[in-house]
Design a protein that fits this description.
- Its cofactor is Zn(2+).
- GO terms for molecular function: metal ion binding; metalloendopeptidase activity.
- InterPro entries: Cell_wall_metabolism_enzyme (IPR050570), Dup_hybrid_motif (IPR011055), M23ase_b-sheet_dom (IPR016047).
- This is Murein DD-endopeptidase MepM/ murein hydrolase activator NlpD.
- With about 650 residues, this protein is of the alpha+beta class.
- Among the domains are: about 90-170 and about 380-475 and about 610-635, Nuclear Transport Factor 2, Chain: A (Roll), CATH 3.10.450.350; about 270-360, Nuclear Transport Factor 2, Chain: A, CATH 3.10.450; about 485-600, Glucose Permease (Domain IIA) (Distorted Sandwich), CATH 2.70.70.
- It is built from eleven helices and 27 strands.
- The strands form five sheets. Strands 16, 19, 20, 21, 22, 23, 24, 25, 26 and 27 form a ten-stranded antiparallel β-sheet that branches. Strands 1, 2, 3, 4, 12, 13, 14 and 15 form an eight-stranded antiparallel β-sheet that branches. The chain has a five-stranded antiparallel β-sheet with strand order 5-8-9-10-11.
- Strand 8 and strand 9 form a beta hairpin.
Length: about 650
């Protein structure tokens, strides 16, 4: 055990020795130095971490990569993201199938006749996130205008009609009459014997040519019976043997789908002296791909830089959202300098110049499209209008697409890089631009994970509407909000009445909006009541819909002209204006929904879909849908947005 004396003896009891006459440090001074050092160390560490984080983000405003951006990353092993690489997909070059003009036979009913004619149609596939430039001004976003806008209807003489199953060379007029099942005015001729058939063929043999279809019905006659030394008729001339090499397989043509591999060229013009890596990265290619292509292109080119006026042409194999680089060429002006391409061992080697593209000469035109960074993407509404107008669609046709998609798409949301719109519509000529009489036949839209596909169909009465692949109307039966610009204020259920002061059942939903805000009908129907209600609802309009549904609009400042009992209204039509008449504390719309005489919650009740085709109408629609799908090589959709 160590005693106090032993402790003093081991440590000493003399004061510490100080050199140069310095005094012993004050403990308070030591604490101040430690505090200052700790504080400066913390500030320095924070600054360094902030600089490192900013450099890592490279100006991006979000830490996590959105799911749609991650889904579009090229997952091919040759394009694997390495440490330090940027997790963005390469720029998707324009595919040859983005726009096509085709001549299609259509049939229009005119009384008891059917007129078949050839008509040009435009089939476009629009990647909405590209920098499309609208050819004309379009209306600003207005939720009310989306539902209340009138749909332009072409004149009956300019109607597109239905897709005809066969091609015609010119306009044909057909008249269908019932087949006579009873007594016929035509005399039945007796059947021909084989000898008579043979004699008929020999006598008309001089009029027949190789492959003539007139003899196709004579399959039951031995063709050798018509052979002779003069060889006046040779029915076997159209027959030939096809010899195939060994170990060779002949496959059927493959239909084009979104997952079909397609080749595309991406043109990258150099507007100033720039390195190959920077030119590619500025065009959206990830750094690993840019460095890989530059490393293989620099040796045969003799430099890793592009001069002002050079054009870099990149060949890409595309499959869905994935893109693989397989070839690269450099042009000085329009003169070819060098080309490299992948060989069988996936190595880049020098290659001959690929077939010349007109895009090389027009590379510096300011009309090329590219996909901007995610944070710079416009709203869905603007993206649809800009793309549609740049592809030749009219403002009325685009407004119709907006209206038909309104139930499933948030137009004020930001576009995603994968958002896509496909349309098929009639045009006037091979220029591919729609006219006021053009009609929209088909739309396939993908926004995020939601796919909406619908087809145009004209019934026997001449009414035109749009249906999904099962024949259900794409339009909602009833809208849940009759004031698109309104703010939800009070729901359905028990609540304390603001005027009466006691608990009372609130049998509707309140939507607040400034006085005079338009109110639209939530569905097609007939006005049952329009006028003053003495029970506290003020100016009230009740519309009767199909299948026992009614909608009630209350506290209106005024009722629209023409809204009287018995009047027909359509979904989206303005029927009145927001007010505060009756027992009301402020301008709002008290909206009620009544089903079989019982008031229900408009926001919670499961509404039926729009009208569905049945019977003969459904069969005709399915035939029309199949013809359109065959023309466009459509595949069944995995998911269709529910209403």
């Amino acid at each position: 055990m160590m005693t106090e004396k032993m402790m003093i003896r081991s440590l000493g009891n003399e004061p510490p020795l100080l050199a140069d006459g310095r005094r012993a440090p004050d403990k308070r001074e030591v604490s101040l130095r430690w505090l200052s050092g700790t504080f400066l160390t913390g500030i320095t560490s924070s600054v360094l971490m902030g600089v490192a984080l900013f450099a890592a983000l490279d100006g991006r405003q979000q830490l996590a990569i959105p799911a749609e951006a991650f889904a579009s990353i090229n997952t091919h092993e040759d394009s694997a993201v390495t440490r330090g690489g940027r997790l963005i997909a390469p720029a998707i070059a324009a595919k040859p199938s983005d726009r096509a003009i085709m001549e299609v036979s259509t049939v229009v009913h005119d009384g008891d006749k059917e007129i078949v004619r050839r008509q040009p149609f435009s089939h476009v596939k629009m990647r909405l996130a590209a920098n499309h430039v609208a050819t004309e001004d379009y209306p600003d976003f207005d939720a009310l205008a989306i539902f209340a806008a009138d749909e332009a209807q072409p004149a009956p003489a300019a109607r597109t009609g239905a897709i005809y199953g066969s091609d015609v060379e010119s306009e044909v007029s057909l008249k269908t009459v019932p087949f006579p099942t009873g007594k016929s005015d035509f005399q039945a001729a007796p059947g021909m014997t084989l000898d008579e058939v043979e004699e008929n063929v020999r006598s008309n043999g001089s009029a027949l040519t190789d492959g003539a279809t007139q003899v196709a019905a004579l399959y039951y006659v031995d063709p050798q019976r018509f052979s002779n030394e003069d060889n006046d008729v040779d029915l076997t001339s159209g027959l030939s043997a096809r010899v195939l090499e060994q170990n060779m397989t002949v496959s059927a043509p493959e239909s084009i789908t979104p997952q079909t591999e397609e080749f595309a060229d991406d043109i990258v013009p150099a507007r100033q002296d720039v390195t190959i890596v920077k030119a590619l990265m500025d065009s959206g290619y990830p750094e690993p791909q840019a460095k890989m292509l530059s490393a293989n292109l620099a040796p045969p080119l003799g430099s890793d830089e592009l001069a002002k006026g050079d054009v870099l042409r990149v060949g890409i194999i595309q499959k869905g959202e994935q893109a693989k680089l397989i070839r690269a060429s450099v042009y000085r002006g329009t003169r070819h300098l060098v080309t490299i391409a992948l060989d069988d061992k996936s190595r880049f080697v020098e290659a001959s110049e690929p077939p010349r593209l007109d895009a090389i000469a027009t590379a510096f035109d300011d009309n090329s499209l590219s996909v901007p960074a995610g944070q710079n993407l416009p709203r869905v509404y603007d993206g649809i209008y800009r793309a549609a107008l740049s592809y030749g669609m009219t403002k009325d046709m685009t407004a119709l697409i907006i209206k038909l998609l309104a139930a499933n798409v948030d137009f004020q949301a930001q576009l995603r890089p994968t958002d896509f719109l496909e349309a098929f519509f009639s045009v006037a000529d091979s220029s591919g631009r729609a006219t006021p009489n053009s009609e929209l036949l088909y739309v396939n839209a993908r926004f995020g994970d939601t796919v909406t596909r619908f087809y145009r169909f004209q019934d026997v009465d001449g009414n035109v509407d749009y249906f999904d692949q099962d024949g259900k109307s794409i339009r909602q039966f009833l809208l849940r909000n009759p004031v698109p610009n309104g703010i939800f204020k009070s729901g359905f259920g028990m609540r304390r009445h603001p005027i009466l002061g006691f608990a009372r059942m609130h049998t509707g939903v309140d939507w607040a909006a400034p006085r005079g805000t338009p109110i639209i009908a939530t569905g097609n129907g007939t006005v049952e009541k329009a006028g003053w209600d003495s029970g506290g609802y003020g100016n009230q309009t009740i519309v009767r819909h199909a299948n026992g549904y009614e909608s009630s609009y209350n506290h209106q400042s005024a009722i629209a002209k023409g809204i009287v009992p018995g009047a027909k209204v359509r979904q989206g039509q303005v029927i009145g204006w927001v007010g505060t008449t009756g027992e009301s504390t402020g301008p709002h719309l008290h909206y009620e929904m009544i089903v079989n005489g019982t008031k229900v919650d408009p926001l919670r009740i499961r509404l039926p879909g729009g009208k569905s085709l049945a019977g003969e109408a459904l069969a005709k629609f399915q035939d029309e849908r199949k013809r359109i799908d065959t023309l466009l090589n459509n595949q069944p959709v995995d998911q269709v947005a529910s209403k």
